[in-house]
Write a structure and sequence with these properties.
The chain is mainly beta. It has 2 helices and 11 strands; from the N terminus they run αβαββββββββββ. The chain has a single domain, classed as Sandwich (Immunoglobulin-like), CATH 2.60.40.3500. The strands form 2 sheets. It has a 6-stranded antiparallel sheet with strand order 2-5-6-9-8-7, with no helix packed on it. It has a 5-stranded mixed sheet with strand order 1-3-4-11-10, with no helix packed on it. β7 and β8 form a beta hairpin. The chain is globular. InterPro entries: AMIN-like (IPR056303). This is AMIN-like domain-containing protein. Keywords: Signal. It holds the Pfam family AMIN-like.
Length: about 180
């Protein structure tokens, strides 16, 4: 009986090992009929959105990805570390860098200014800098690119360049922790 359980455990472990493959493409396309009917998270609207972290967090932003779905586009900020992020997200035609006030160049006619709270510098968390600079979105959508505006006093700033203002929503997903911005197209 023990040999059967061990064999079953090894079989499951072997089949799951392929699930951990590193994705090099930052675009996640709807791959099946079920994914193509995915709905935006939350209630998209044009209003500013904010939520303070409930407890001290020590997160780092490790990656930015895009998803294109029927009726909306998704920008995902991958997070690593302890706690849950807060955020302050609003439209800005000419976004400026926190702390310096320097303009942040982006492609598109407008931008969503995404500030993620509860973050630390990667070196404070013992991690290498992920070097997220400018990440271009797939062509033909509302989202044109994401620009890293830097980290300052526990807040990491990103600018989502867009062709026009559209209703959007912001949510946190867990396991792994991600801040998700869904934008109607």
């Amino acid at each position: 009986m023990l040999k059967v359980r061990l064999a079953a455990t090894l079989l499951v472990a072997a089949s799951l090992s392929g699930c951990a493959a590193q994705e090099t493409d930052r675009t996640t396309m709807a791959a099946s009929a079920d994914n193509s009917r995915l709905n935006p998270l939350g209630q998209p609207n044009m209003e500013m959105k904010t939520l303070r972290p409930q407890a001290p967090s020590e997160l780092t932003v490790t990656d930015v990805r895009f998803g294109q779905h029927e009726g909306f586009e998704r920008v995902v900020f991958e997070l690593d570390g302890g706690g849950s992020p807060g955020w302050f997200v609003d439209y800005a035609d000419t976004p400026t860098q926190q702390g310096s006030g320097k303009a942040i160049d982006h492609s598109g006619e407008t931008a969503l200014n995404v500030n993620i709270d509860g973050v630390v510098y990667p070196f404070e968390a013992g991690k290498d800098d992920p070097r997220i600079g400018v990440v271009d979105a797939p062509k033909g959508g509302v989202v044109t690119q994401v620009v890293n505006g830097g980290t300052y006093e526990g807040r990491c700033q990103f600018v989502i360049g867009m062709t026009s203002r559209k209703p959007y929503s912001v949510q946190v997903l867990d396991n792994p922790t991600r801040l998700v911005v869904d934008i109607r197209d």
